[in-house]
Amino acid sequence: MGAIYRYACPSCGYEARVAGGKSALMMAKTQTYQCDDCRELMDLATEVVDPESESGARPDWILVDDLKCTRCGSRNVRIWDGRTCPKCGATMVEIEGDIIMAD
Length: 103
Ligand SMILES: [Zn+2]
Ligand SMILES: [Zn+2]
Fold this sequence. Notes:
By secondary structure, this protein is mainly β.
């Protein structure tokens, strides 16, 4: 189970709902990335459960080596530092009390 936080930029008004770092869901481990082309934040799956692994047993994780922006398809993505607005470079703030639990 992972939590999705809401981040907002006080400078340009950009908002994103992301985990803000490493997170783990049932079928994937995710990390928050920013795209240098469309300047969006997103959680990308960095490891996924091997569909061949037996259910119920300890799942096998496969590393995803082909990370792409979910919006524009660019491979120009890098790990977000947890605070910098991808649009304008200002420091984003986490909106408290607005957390979505995801599973
Ligand atoms: Zn901004
Ligand atoms: Zn993009």
